[in-house]
């Protein structure tokens, strides 16, 4: 603000020269006095071309030709200020002492250059010239070396068709505000000041209007009331509260609609953040009580943040002192839609189908994980995460160097509960893993959402450990590894009538209308390379018992499974009909076949074993408990050989 203070001092000095008009001093002499006094006060050369023209009607004032203020001696950017004309009007009473009362100030076509050197020096740091002709040191105890400007009143100040360029030599940043139109009013020096300005910056239109509650303290950097609105293209920002500039600090209410951040990013000459849908891709809005501390931290209370269609309420604290910004927040929301996080839609789905185009190969964008570290507590009435639909949810999210950990404290979904944790790691590529426990979940809607199939009805429990690596859902599913166990209660398997197949030895009992009612299903499994393997399935249904083993290719969405059901068996499990059922093919077009050949072979083998058992019984071969017929025969032969050897030895030794 010091350069503004100095320029105001110049204007006031020129206003005082109006007195010379009444003393009939020529304009050239007035210009010489003005330039001399300005250089003494600032250490910079002031050049007025075309002289100074005083006037008395319709107002007392002066008008200059082109005006130039020299830049700092270390700058190579040309003059600090150039203007085509400067007009100043003054109240008559100001000529006789007291507060300077300016009726108007008008600056035509100004071009202003603000510059920061690589070593931190700034060109708006003016220094008065000492008696020896050298710039003197700033007075002790004054902000920025200024003893404070002379109090004044400004009825109307205007700036027309101006341009302000800010240059940071350390970063190489150069920012220009062009087509600048500005207006200011200050009825009382220590009172409120009204300002408005418009212009173009980095291709974006900018409009600012505001009221500074206490102008004099504000110039010194003190915290004062501020009411401000800004429009950047279609984006809008409003602030009402208190603000100080030395150091920067603020406390008040903010109401901002930042749209999709493209115009804000362009204004700041930054790349637009690549945010996922649901997290600000289409629009960002913030409202609440905002505090900015002199340490650079930002705090939001009673906050309402709208990201696309998601409306979040809560509190947040953002600190910037570490290696990365860190956000700590508590968030409450009725419904949170993060469906975009599945990387796009996969198969087409349908009745009992899984789609024909497989898992989505669209890259999953998790670049937002690298923007900052975070510790966020979320309470949501509902949550759409990828394709999964969750009900009341309480979870903790921790982000550390692009690695996000979700701690599931309470997740209600599909009529059951989900606990555990999972990780999204974007430090080197993308990987995901976790340990989850699901209890009492409704299977049909769950599998419909996650696997595009609705063939299984009932409730179930699942314990799962998993790890997947890849940039898309397709790559992750093809890389899955881990293990788990599932248990289902009473339910229904649609599209397959196992009992009908066994009764008729006809594999055609499939498709719409076919179903198998079951009492329970349990199985353990392992996963490697996106393929799930199982060898201990137990299937229990009325009049049917079955075991099973096989493979489920999760990446290719296909199945190769052998089910061994037995129907109409006795209560002890014996008897009945046993026919292997082969199930294979893609999920959306499974093929069912009865392995009759295996059944015939099994029956032939069973008949052969029965005949062997009868023959063994005739030979006196009786298996002991837990002993096979083959082992019993070997034992019987071994015993017979030992008995015969004992008799032969006895005869050899002359025994009876």
UniProtKB/TrEMBL annotation:
Q: InterPro entries of this UniProt entry?
A: AsmA, AsmA-related
Q: Where is the AsmA domain?
A: 7-183, 306-514
Q: Where is the composition biased (Gly residues)?
A: 343-356
Q: What Gene Ontology biological process does one annotation of this record name? A: regulation of protein targeting to membrane
Region annotation Disordered: where it falls in the sequence? 128-152, 339-359
Cellular component, GO, one term:
plasma membrane
Q: Which domain of life is it from?
A: Bacteria
Provide the protein name: AsmA family protein
Tell me what organism the protein belongs to.
Cereibacter changlensis
């Amino acid at each position: 603000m010091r350069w503004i203070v100095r320029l105001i001092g110049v204007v006031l000095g020129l206003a005082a020269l109006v007195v010379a008009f009444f003393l009939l001093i020529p304009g050239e002499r007035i210009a010489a006095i003005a330039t001399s006094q300005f250089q003494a006060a600032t250490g910079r050369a002031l050049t007025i071309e075309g002289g100074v023209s005083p006037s008395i009607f319709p107002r007392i004032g002066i008008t200059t030709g082109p005006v130039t203020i020299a830049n700092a001696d270390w700058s190579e950017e040309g003059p600090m200020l150039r203007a085509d004309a400067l007009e100043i009007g003054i109240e008559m009473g100001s000529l006789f002492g007291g507060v300077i009362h300016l009726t108007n100030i008008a600056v035509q076509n100004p071009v202003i250059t603000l510059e920061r050197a690589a070593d931190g020096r700034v060109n708006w740091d003016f220094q008065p010239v000492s008696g020896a002709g050298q710039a003197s040191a700033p007075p002790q105890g004054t902000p920025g070396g200024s003893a404070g400007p002379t109090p004044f009143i400004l009825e109307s100040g205007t700036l027309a068709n101006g341009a302000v360029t800010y240059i940071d030599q350390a970063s190489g940043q150069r920012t220009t505000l062009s087509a600048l139109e500005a207006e200011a009013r200050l009825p009382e020096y220590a009172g409120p000041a009204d300002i408005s300005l418009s212009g173009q910056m980095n291709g974006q239109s900018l409009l600012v209007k505001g009221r500074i509650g206490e102008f004099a303290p504000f110039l010194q950097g003190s915290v004062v009331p501020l009411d401000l609105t800004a429009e950047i293209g279609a984006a809008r920002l409003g602030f009402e509260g208190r603000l100080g500039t030395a150091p920067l600090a603020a406390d008040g209410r903010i109401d901002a609609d930042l749209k999709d951040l493209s115009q804000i990013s362009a204004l700041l000459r930054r790349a637009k953040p690549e945010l996922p849908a649901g997290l600000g891709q289409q629009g960002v809005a913030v409202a609440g009580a905002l505090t900015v501390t002199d340490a650079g931290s930002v705090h939001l209370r009673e906050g309402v943040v709208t990201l696309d269609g998601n409306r979040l309420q809560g509190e947040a604290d953002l600190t910037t002192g570490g290696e990365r910004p860190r956000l700590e927040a508590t968030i409450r929301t009725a419904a949170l839609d993060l469906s975009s996080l599945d990387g796009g839609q996969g198969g087409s789905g349908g009745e009992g189908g899984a789609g024909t185009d497989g898992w989505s190969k669209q890259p999953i964008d998790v670049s937002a994980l690298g923007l900052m570290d975070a510790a966020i507590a979320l309470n949501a009435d509902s949550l759409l995460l990828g394709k999964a639909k969750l009900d009341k949810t309480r979870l903790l999210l921790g982000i550390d160097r692009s690695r996000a950990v979700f701690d599931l404290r309470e997740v209600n979904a599909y009529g059951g509960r989900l606990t555990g944790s999972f990780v999204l790691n974007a430090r080197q590529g993308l990987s995901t893993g976790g340990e989850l426990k699901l209890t009492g979940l409704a299977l049909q809607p769950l599998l419909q959402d996650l696997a595009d199939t609705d063939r299984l009805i009932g409730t179930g429990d699942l314990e799962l450990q998993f790890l997947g690596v890849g940039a898309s859902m397709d790559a992750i599913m093809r890389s899955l590894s881990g293990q788990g166990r599932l248990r289902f209660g009473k339910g229904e398997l649609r599209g397959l009538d196992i009992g009908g197949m066994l009764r008729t030895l006809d594999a055609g009992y499939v498709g719409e209308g076919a179903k198998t009612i079951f009492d329970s299903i349990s199985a353990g499994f392992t996963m490697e390379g996106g393929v799930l393997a199982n060898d201990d399935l137990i299937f229990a249904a009325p009049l049917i018992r079955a075991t099973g083993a096989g493979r489920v290719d999760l990446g290719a969405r296909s199945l190769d499974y052998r089910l061994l059901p037995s129907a109409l068996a006795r209560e002890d499990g014996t008897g009945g009909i046993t026919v292997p059922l082969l199930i294979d093919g893609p999920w959306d077009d499974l093929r069912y076949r009865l392995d009759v050949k295996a059944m015939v072979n099994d029956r032939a083998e069973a008949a052969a074993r029965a005949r062997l058992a009868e023959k063994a019984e005739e030979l006196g071969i009786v298996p002991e408990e837990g002993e096979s017929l083959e082992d019993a025969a070997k034992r019987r032969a071994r015993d017979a050989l030992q008995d015969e050897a004992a008799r032969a030895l006895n005869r050899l030794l002359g025994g009876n």
